[in-house]
Amino acid sequence: MNMLLLNVLYLILHMASSSRHETVVTLVPNVLVVKVDQKVFTETQVPLRCGDYQDTEVIWRNGEERLENKGNQINVEVVEMMGGNYSCHNAAGDYLNHTLVLVQDIPSPNRTRRVLEKSHDTDKDEYIRCLSKNYSGIFHCSWKKTEYRMSAAVVFVQVDRTISCSVDSDGEGLTCQDRDSCPFAEELSRIKLTVYFRTNYLLEDYTITPFYIREIVKPDKIDITKVEGNTFQWRYPATWSRPCPYFPLTFRVKVVQHEASCDSKEKVLISETNINATEFTVRSSYKKYCFCLGAKDDLVDSQWSQWTRHEVKNKPKKH
């Protein structure tokens, strides 16, 4: 009697758990996503359709394995995270169509992330970082895969506005362009971007906090064009938006001890910001030091460029 009650209880719990996660959605043509709760055991019936082959004998395969199911439309069972790559063929074995079935954990605050590492370049809880060199509408997003998911690949990029994106050849980022962008016009809406990654049949999506181009703009490193004694001259980066008076930059200078890092906070000899000129003279008697130069958009609260570093070794004067 106790065994019967246990079996009935298991069946009720199993049916209850199954009813919470029976969600199948289309990500892109030929790609279905089964959304499940990984905290419970799941079995999901997924309908597959080969196409318009009502009068054709249709056989199905999952990879190299032939299925017993036949017909233009069948149901396959997806157990927990075990998706599949299903293809349909005619009686002669000729390929007709395919459906890739991926499995995704239902979003929750405590869900485990497996594909990407958190970015260490920002205080925000982000996995993908986007930057733009100017206001042309082109920006680049990058990420770092976890050690155990190096084979993860982008399967879909969802983005609004008139933006197109292409994945970098190394799979470590993507380049996007807003085709209707105008550098001289104010953006009316933030960019919303979600990247979907696949490892085997596991799917994970990463949504970036919506942003304006002006919030992610970061100039390239500055070119120091001339050094005479302790006087330095430079110019705007070639990649920065033109004309320069319409897109002004502000500069910062830091002079640190010889061989010290430009990011050093303890070996700083001189530090000045909000410099609008493209020339600076180090007025000191230092014989050896490092001159560090950075830039940012003067009109918005954006990011500083990487430091440009120049080592100075003044020869002692002869008496």
UniProtKB/TrEMBL annotation:
Keywords: Cytokine, Disulfide bond, Glycoprotein, Immunoglobulin domain, Secreted, Signal. The keyword Secreted applies. Belongs to the IL-12B family. It comes from Salvelinus namaycush (Lake trout). It holds the Pfam family IL12p40_C. Its main location: secreted. Heterodimer with IL12A; disulfide-linked. The heterodimer is known as interleukin IL-12. Residues 1-18 form the signal peptide. InterPro entries: FN3_sf, Ig-like_fold, IL-12, IL-12_beta, IL-12_beta_cen-dom. This is Interleukin-12 subunit beta. GO terms for molecular function: cytokine activity; cytokine receptor activity. It is found in: Secreted. Residues 126-198 form the Interleukin-12 beta central domain. GO terms for cellular component: extracellular space.
